[in-house]
């Protein structure tokens, strides 16, 4: 038993009055609330589909860069050899290079769900509707993903917060999608090889 005359008074030191001091009841709470997890799971498939569009744009940009650099190189060599008619091919190659960079910017932006890229992608999808019939079907699907209410929410600041709060939730791509992607890449490579061979 303490004989101090102050022992009956409560401790008013700075440490005991600190509202931010840890207590014995502190627990490690999950980063995302139940509501965030539910929202992420609800829109996860739509999010992954939009990011899939971004992947297709990145693939197109890669092959676009490859083809344009090849065309520019051939044009420059031909012009050095005295063929001035290849100046038009050089211009086409430079224009294609700019378009490929735009595709890269769009693809990366869609992968990151950048709202600024969404508007540009919608414009490209509207233009793609003119590619009857395959381009129309694909572009219409892209428009649904980008311009629908779900698409609008996936690009919103609120959904960005939900994604940041639920980093452990990932979408598992099915083997069918991977098979389709590999087949698409093979077809693109075969088209480039055929174009070079016929050129």
Order of helices and strands: HHHHHHHH
Low-confidence stretches: 18-30
CA-based gyration radius: 28 Å
**How can the largest sheet be summarized?**
none
The outline comes out as elongated
How widely separated are the two ends?
A: 101 Å
Classify the helix fraction into a percent range.
over 70%
Question: Which range does the strand content fall in?
Answer: under 5%
Note the total helix count.
8
The residue-averaged pLDDT reads 79
| Count of distinct strands | 0
Helix/strand/pairing category: mainly alpha
Mind explaining what this structure looks like?
The chain has about 200 residues and is mainly α. Helix content is about 70%, strand content about 0%. It contains 8 helices and no strands. The protein is elongated, with a radius of gyration of 28 Å.
Question: What keywords describe this structure?
Answer:
single chain
Give a short synopsis of this structure.
This protein is mostly helical. 72% of the residues lie in helices and 0% in strands.
Explain the layout of strands and helices.
Elements: H1 14-17, H2 34-80, H3 87-111, H4 115-128, H5 134-147, H6 149-154, H7 157-165, H8 175-198
Helix pairs in contact: 2-3, 2-7, 2-8, 3-4, 4-5
